[in-house]
């Protein structure tokens, strides 16, 4: 497969996995309801996204960098809401 197609697959995956967190973050911010969110899971996921971002920076992978740089915003917002509102 040509490198351009491989990058396209990476960007498509990045778009889907990034956008899926936006509705949850917006709902959490709007309702302030975090009862159904596991603190341990959300914290681990946020830390994992941060590590993926670091990994992407270290290897210079644009799809990994872009996806995780964007994803960390709603994921961290959900974590912050969980910490603030329980």
Automatic annotation (TrEMBL):
Q: Does the keyword Transmembrane helix apply?
A: yes
Q: Name one Pfam family in it.
A: MtN3_slv
Annotated keywords: Membrane, Transmembrane, Transmembrane helix
Question: What NCBIfam families does UniProt report for this protein, alphabetically?
Answer: SemiSWEET_2
InterPro entries from the UniProt entry: SemiSWEET, SWEET_rpt
Q: Transmembrane stretches, by residue range?
A: 6-24, 36-58, 64-83
Query: Example GO molecular function term?
Result: sugar transmembrane transporter activity
Q: Which Gene3D superfamilies match?
A: 1.20.1280.290
The name under which this protein is listed is MtN3 and saliva related transmembrane protein
- UniProt GO cellular component terms: membrane
Q: Which domain of life is it from?
A: Bacteria
